[in-house]
């Protein structure tokens, strides 16, 4: 199993050049969660709607973060898995991404622990590794803390 990751464009105002999810974005008031997923897949990675609609809702992650203004903000992300055909290669769409990588789960796990990942995107990748039993309680001494950290009360 492998995972597609994106590298954010250098001109992004937040976290330029860091690793990101294949596609993501804020939900506007006029679109639902699934509609936003399909739109962002098309815009950011040129994933056609016919493929994006095959995605499966697998839960949420939640956390709080400190904004650049010093405020503390709660956030929840809806998480979807999408199995892409082997021959599919994402393409840069709207310019928010500079390139895509198809990495082994070992390499993804290593990157999660580095400063190369946008923090909330590392959480989504970590959630994937846990849900797919790539990280297991008998092999990870901080397993419970990792799972709890992905699901903070807001």
TrEMBL record:
<dbReference type="Pfam" id="PF00293">
    <property type="entry name" value="NUDIX"/>
</dbReference>
<dbReference type="InterPro" id="IPR000086">
    <property type="entry name" value="NUDIX_hydrolase_dom"/>
</dbReference>
<feature type="domain" description="Nudix hydrolase">
    <location>
        <begin position="1"/>
        <end position="125"/>
    </location>
</feature>
<dbReference type="GO" id="GO:0044715">
    <property type="term" value="F:8-oxo-dGDP phosphatase activity"/>
</dbReference>
<protein>
    <recommendedName>
        <fullName>Nudix hydrolase domain-containing protein</fullName>
    </recommendedName>
</protein>
<dbReference type="InterPro" id="IPR015797">
    <property type="entry name" value="NUDIX_hydrolase-like_dom_sf"/>
</dbReference>
């Amino acid at each position: 199993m492998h995972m597609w990751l994106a590298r954010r464009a250098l001109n992004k105002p937040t976290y330029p050049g860091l690793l990101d999810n294949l596609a993501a974005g804020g939900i506007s008031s006029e679109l639902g969660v699934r509609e936003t997923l399909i739109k962002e897949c098309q815009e950011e990675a040129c994933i056609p709607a016919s493929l994006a609609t095959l995605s499966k809702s697998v839960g949420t992650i939640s956390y709080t973060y400190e904004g650049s203004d010093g405020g503390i903000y709660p956030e929840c992300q809806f998480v979807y898995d999408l199995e892409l055909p082997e021959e599919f290669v994402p393409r840069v769409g709207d310019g928010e991404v500079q390139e895509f990588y198809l990495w082994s789960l070992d390499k993804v796990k290593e990157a999660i622990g580095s400063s190369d990942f946008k923090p909330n995107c590392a959480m989504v990748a970590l959630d994937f590794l846990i849900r797919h039993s790539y990280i297991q309680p008998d092999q990870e001494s901080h397993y419970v803390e990792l799972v709890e950290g992905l699901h903070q009360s807001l």
